[in-house]
Amino acid sequence: MNSPNEPLPTFDEVLLCTPQTSAEQVGLFLRRCLIPCRGGEKIYTMLYADELSYEVSCRAEELFQHLQHYNSSYRLIILCNCEREHSYIPSVFSQYKVHMIPQRPLAEIQRYLQHHYRVAQPSSSAASVFKDNMCVGIVSSKRAGVGK
To answer: Which GO CC terms are listed, alphabetically (predicted)?
Structure first.
């Protein structure tokens, strides 16, 4: 948010982890992050890495240890739930741990995201469904199974 005109991360810079995330997916992500190429100064982010299975986490750590020697200037952020800080990945990388609380007010964060997710020229696209021509939106309900 310090550079409001910089683009948001692209699909290859973010890995959203779940218990079903495979070792192959994590491996491809780590290779993009740790093997030098002409891709520029990207910042790679693993979200919810604490959700990875034990086997996938072990393989990810091994690959990370092997690949980090190829690139000493990699930029990797691993975000985990603080309630699961004793799972494998947060434990392995605990020496680099930084407890973080969002420093910006919610309204400022919302304005920043609106700037990046607004469709520049409204047309008959799916963006017209969401408020203020946003190309993303959240649909929720307090009742389950209502066809969202």
So the answer is: cytosol; membrane; nucleolus
Answer whether 88's CB lies under 8 Å from 59's CB. Answer: no
Let me know whether 117 and 130 are in one domain.
Answer: yes
Residue 132 near residue 118, CB atoms below 8 Å: yes
Q: What range does the domain containing 112 cover?
A: 104-147
> In this structure, are 119 and 138 located in the same domain?
yes
* One domain for residues 87 and 130: no
Q: At what angle do helices 54-67 and 23-34 cross, to 10 degrees?
A: 20
* pLDDT tens, residue by residue, 78-123: 999 888 888 999 999 988 888 777 788 888 888 888 888 877 766 6
- Decide: helix, strand or coil at residue 77: strand
The model carries a pTM of 0.73
Q: Residue 50 class from Cβ within 10 Å (0-12 exposed, 13-18 middle, 19+ buried)?
A: buried
Contact 114, 4 (CB under 8 A): no
